[in-house]
UniProtKB/TrEMBL annotation:
Species assigned in the record: Periweissella cryptocerci
UniProt lineage: Bacteria, Bacillati, Bacillota, Bacilli, Lactobacillales
InterPro entries for this protein: Calcineurin-like_PHP, DNA_Repair-Maintenance_Comp, Metallo-depent_PP-like, Mre11_N, SbcD, SbcD_C
GO molecular function, one term: 3'-5' exonuclease activity
Protein name: Nuclease SbcCD subunit D
Record's subunit section: Heterodimer of SbcC and SbcD.
GO biological process: DNA recombination; DNA replication
Domain Calcineurin-like phosphoesterase per the UniProt entry, residue ranges: 1-221
Length: 393
């Protein structure tokens, strides 16, 4: 069996104020062409279908057409889940009808157990993004209990229960959407929007998935963040921020034989409008010899890092006349490093301490001294869960 693995479409996302829908539509057409060329038996979309819980009507229309094209016109089965950006309840609409047509879209923890799919000798489990609170509710764990406080604790139980449902003699595939850490990505600098809690409370160790033959992940936007050979991120099909600018985008083709090693092949997607980071002083950037080598206005998005602070006005306007769509204009001035140093320090603090600890420290300092009560800690935790749902990759 051959499957195409993609994730993090984020339909409706904007790059600062620039609309990405055209680029996303083009990437979709390339995905469709890859699926046809590879003659896949189905398509995995591992969460973050939309960019937000309540997507724009344009985004809904675009995504609806994409699903129609793949599922009704091209007749591919689809194995999808909701990610942290999606509105799970809204996406749960019409699932029974969709299932009739082999369009599987799980948005609740329990559906991972009730709605797994067996095709030939492959069993596919679809486990949507959830937080510990969702898992505690599903397992009816009381709000005061210390059980399942972290996603790792919750996932340990969920995976054990999924394994109970393993049909013997089948290959077992999991589709899910979390920050999974393993041996290969330990030292990898994560470049998604998820920054502050890497290695912290939100991560799931890859070893929990050791009994699956392949885990198709969404959440982190670069395939280089994959924790192991068979626990992989396909990454997003489109570049969503300047930190992703240098890395190519694409999808995986997963070849699942009845026995033996899973085949994993990377297929590149070429952006119809690339995201390019230019760095240099103003004189260089407005030099014809330099800019004539770059894509013409409208053909690329630019992030520009100026290493000098030029005199005169309308710097942005001058650069826009040359380059067109500038999504970001930043000054990276040598000697003017106080701000950069402050940012680095903040990032270091954020990396070594969890947001819960930082809030606790702050409270302690301000209240001279006092600890958060248990109830207050729970409020902080609940608020942070809500924020993470909105702000993560
Ligand atoms: Mn994402």
């Amino acid at each position: 069996m051959k499957l195409l693995h993609t994730a993090d479409w984020h339909i409706g996302k904007q790059l600062n104020e620039f609309d990405l829908l055209d680029v996303q539509q083009d990437a979709f057409k390339q995905i469709e062409a890859i699926a046809a060329a590879e003659q896949v038996d189905g398509i995995i979309i591992a969460g973050d279908l939309y960019d937000r819980a309540i997507p724009s009507t344009a985004a809904v229309k675009a995504f609806d057409q994409m699903l129609q094209q793949l599922n009704i016109t091209d007749k591919y089965p689809i194995y999808a889940i909701s990610g942290n950006h999606d509105g799970a309840t809204r996406l749960n609409f019409a699932r029974e009808w969709m299932k009739q047509n082999d369009l599987h879209l799980n948005t609740k923890v329990e559906e991972a157990f009730t709605d797994n799919v067996v095709v030939g000798d492959v069993q596919i489990f679809m486990l949507p993004f959830f937080d510990p609170q969702d898992a505690r509710m599903y397992y009816q764990i009381s709000i005061d209990s210390n059980e399942m406080r972290t996603i790792e604790q919750a996932m340990t139980r969920v995976v054990a229960d999924l394994e109970q449902q393993f049909e013997p003699g089948k290959r077992h595939i999991l589709v899910t959407h979390f920050n999974v850490q393993g041996t290969d990505n330990e030292n990898y600098e994560l470049t998604s929007e998820t920054t502050s809690t890497v290695g912290g409370l939100n991560t799931v160790p890859a070893r929990l998935f050791k009994n699956f033959d392949y885990v198709a992940l969404g959440h982190l936007h670069l395939r280089q963040a994959s924790p192991t050979r068979t626990v992989r991120y396909s990454g997003s099909p489109v570049k969503f921020n300047t930190k992703e600018a240098k890395n190519e985008k694409g999808v995986y083709i997963i070849d699942i034989p009845t026995t033996g090693e899973i085949g994993i092949t990377w297929k590149t997607i070429t952006p119809s409008k690339d995201l390019i980071v230019l760095r240099g002083d103003f004189e260089k950037l407005i030099d014809r010899d330099f800019y004539s080598e770059q894509p013409k206005p409208g053909e690329a998005f630019y992030s520009i890092q100026l290493t000098s602070r030029p005199a005169g006005k309308n710097i942005r306007k001058q650069l826009e006349d040359i380059y067109g769509d500038i999504v970001e204009l930043e000054y990276h001035i040598q000697g003017d490093e106080t701000q950069a140093a402050t940012e680095q320090l903040a990032q270091r603090v954020a990396k070594t301490k969890s947001p819960e600890e930082i809030i606790g420290d702050f409270y302690n300092e301000m209240m001279d001294p006092a600890q958060l009560t248990e109830q207050q800690q729970k409020w902080v935790e609940a608020a942070l869960i809500d924020i993470r749902k909105d702000s993560e990759a």
